[in-house]
Amino acid sequence: MKSQTLHSIQSLKNNQQPIAVLTAYDSSFAKLLSENGVEIILIGDSLGMVIQGQQTTVPVTLEQMCYHTRCVAAGNNGALLVADLPYMSYATEAQAIENSAALMQAGANMVKLEGGEWLLSTIKKLSERGIPVCTHLGLTPQSVDALGGFKVQGREEQQAQQMINDAIELEKAGAKLLVLECVPQKLAKEISQKLTIPTIGIGAGKETDGQVLVLHDMLGLNDSFRPKFVKNFMHDDSVHSIADAIKNYVEQVKNKTFPGSEHSFD
Ligand code: KIV
Ligand code: NA
């Protein structure tokens, strides 16, 4: 695959071509994903759950994120690498700068952080220093205790309006990508239309500019964890290998057959 850049990702949105994103945490999967059409690999702090067996992403450390970012970078063949800043690693601007630098030096092309308005000046500072930033709105798992559990966000009018405003301000502050997690399809569509930068949805319906799933979820590795928005891509009759499942995912994102309404929220 040709190497993806911020510009090639932006031009996918400009040409209305959906962007295929998956998480990975090691070099073998990074190689497989990047050689089968996945344009962005997210080294997600979801590794707290799928690699470490924790209940949430809260225990994940910067050192662990750097380790997995190095592993992914070693196997990657051209995907854009986005690494999560873990819990409380961007509580102050100084921390955000120092810890983003560590992720970039480990091999990330972009860092991701969770939240809206309070992050505007942090995003501006990172962008000014040449660190591309992806933000994350809706269900932000690092705040799971404050949100009162893993549930759909933005169903009430005021909350929806706040999310739209946050998204616009984040773009103005310099964010280059926005993840929307567990958001009603209609709201995700409106945000995607209002922004110039691409939106990447998970549980946000089919109208975002791209889709992301946690790798272990879409491979059906944990049968007891099957939220509505997850599809097991190993189940298809035409799928005989993990590579087939990845190709199928990319194809279904590109032709907009995934996610279906059964994977989306009203
Ligand atoms: O950590 C992660 O895997 C994520 C995605 C679910 C967007 O943040
Ligand atoms: Na994450």
UniProtKB/TrEMBL annotation:
SUPFAM superfamilies assigned to the protein according to its UniProt record, in alphabetical order: Phosphoenolpyruvate/pyruvate domain (SSF51621)
Note on how the cofactor is bound: Binds 1 Mg(2+) ion per subunit.
Major localisation: cytoplasm
One Pfam family of this chain: Pantoate_transf
Top-level taxon of the source organism: Bacteria
Residues noted as binding Mg(2+) in the record, renumbered to the chain: D45, D84, E114
Record's function text: Catalyzes the reversible reaction in which hydroxymethyl group from 5,10-methylenetetrahydrofolate is transferred onto alpha-ketoisovalerate to form ketopantoate.
Protein name as catalogued: 3-methyl-2-oxobutanoate hydroxymethyltransferase
Name of the encoding gene: panB
